[in-house]
Fold this protein.
Amino acid sequence: MSNSTEHTDISASDPGEIAGRVTVLNHSGPKPVMKADPFDLYAQPEVPLMVKPVSIWRLLRFKWTILVVFLLVTIPMAAWIWTFIVPQYRVAAQIRVRPIIPRLVFKTDDNGPIPLYSSYLNTQVAMIMSPVVLQRVLDNPGVQQTKWYSENKTPSSGKPGSHIDRLTKALDVQPRWMTEIIDVAMMSQDAKEAETIVNAILDEYIAFVREGLDQDDDMMYKKLLEEYNSLRNEIDGREKIAAKLRKDLGTGTPEELITQRRVRLDTMESQLESIRRQITMYQWQQKLQKTSKTTAEPAGQVPTTQPRSERYEADAEWRRLYLDYRNVEHQLNIQRDRLGVNHPRMIELEKNSKLAEELFLARQEYLDIQYMQNADLHVLTHQASSTSIQDEQALEQTIKQLKYEENLLASDVQKEQMNFERAFDSAQMLGRENDIIQYKRELYQAVRARLNEKEMERNVPGSIEVLARAQIPGEPHQNRRLFFTLVAVMAGLGMGLVTAFYRASTTETIHEAEELRDVVRSPFLGQIPYNRFLGNGMECESPACGEFIRIVRTALLQRLEKDQGNSILVTSACCGAGKTTVSILLARSFTQCGKSVLLVDCDVHNPTIAIRFGIKSTPGLLSVLKEQIGDEEAIVKTNLSGLDVIPAGIGWNENDQELLANGNFGIGLARWRKKYDVILFDGSPILPVADARIICRQIDGCVMVVQKGHCQRSDVVDALANISSSGGKLFGTIFVGSRARNIYGVDRILSGEYQTIKQLDQKLGEDT
């Protein structure tokens, strides 16, 4: 092949969007080094197509070459391998070590599952190989009766040596990767003796581990029991203290008691303050009488000014409103700390506080207006007050009575204050005791649960157990004949693979999906096995075909940006790639997932959709583009609900070459977008004709179909470069694992296939 293609980058900035350049080089001449555009963010270094990876499936296409080379290399080498053999038996056993560490009560980093389990397994290996365990094995009577024990010679030097050193060198103890198993193996020429020694190692190791675990369990159980009794006694003592505190308080809810006492104390303090104000006022009136007598003040004269506080306090209504306001404010402050600002009760209290404040201020305003505008009323009020206490002895008696009442109330306030403080301290102490009791109960429950677990765990098997005891193997473990034979086989296979690799790396035809990914760095939507349509085109021979097309459909749905009006062009680089089959499968799959689909046959050079569905070829797309008919006449309903078809029509000639580019196609596409969720176009191949390049810039994206053993690498790269240069968007590629078809396009027209189509249309017309 004289021409090949090299591509610099065909990648996607978005899913389905191709950005890059494609360069066609002549392999027969010198290969120029193409430098990437420094302003192209998606460009990558040039990679010649002659250097391409080869998969194992590509190599298997040359299986006969591999077989011949393999036999020529392997047979002579295997002829002289089977000469010497020194049998060595490997006796192995397995120990299972579960990653469990006992915990006391709470789960911490030091108990539960072991975070570094590999280290734990290595520790168990060290314990098995420890001198303590091995010495116990050597003290076993069964081991001392073996020939291995009586020889007492090292295999390497033949001199007498220590039994522990010999046993350490003969043993192979390794943890199995990613498992809980430790393999214990021993190499020996006598399999029976090796079995005896390995089983003795298992028994002594298990006994050694369980002795240590029993000691740890007994110590932990005693510790838990002590903690259990201590917590029980402490909870009982604190519950007695809490009961005494509740008895002293007389309630089990100390918060409400404190609130009530606080309100009562504030009320008593307000009453005491009111009595003191009355005493002050009466004393002032008494002093005023005495002053009026000494200064001989004219009758009816009153002070020109009076302090506002005295004027307000003289009013009984103002004092009542002021006391209500203070009580509401105090209760609001208490409830705010207890309930929070967002509690419904707080909202109600805030409204009551605001109302009390408004009434209190309104009374003050009324007294101010009354004092300023009606001076005579003040004189009359003063005279009336003076008249009501004109008797000096009666006034003095009233003052003494109020002072006595003040003393009594002050004593009560002091007692109430002391009671409040004692109740508050008791409530705080009760709250702390309740919290401590709650915590101790939780700890007590945890300890009791752990004790129950420990009692049940005594009858549970240990975390370390013998999974498989040693058994005598049926065949030797080390056989050098097998090893050298394997070397010969690998050498022959390697030579065959190298030869097949050389042949596979020089071909240009795409045979596998991996080759397509290597050639085209674009989104790979999936692969479809070879499929032959039956009957009306709605069923396929391969049951797996439907699943493969669902994978492709899922990848396409991920790249569609709209719920309705998505348009997709299914095309290929050259003829015979199977794009029509893929179009029908995709249309069927989209319909099955609930989409309304319109399948349009845009391949006017080689229309096959009508034949596949068994429908008339006319009227079709050509008539719609020529504005001879409307969509209703061109669209054909299929027997699959939700799938409509527009055939390509027949009668194409050279005068119809620009029908796809004159604007009528775009107008029709706009109409179809409003009616269908997905519009699939079965287009012409890209390289032979320009129809697909014209269509790709008017739709949402294209799908490139590549068939196994048919499409060339250079054709695929050129087709993708044409899509990019035409302004189109590539959703991805689909690989079809079928053999190529021979003729496409004009050859089918010349073969008279359109005559068959016309006869089919006439037959369908007669039937209708």
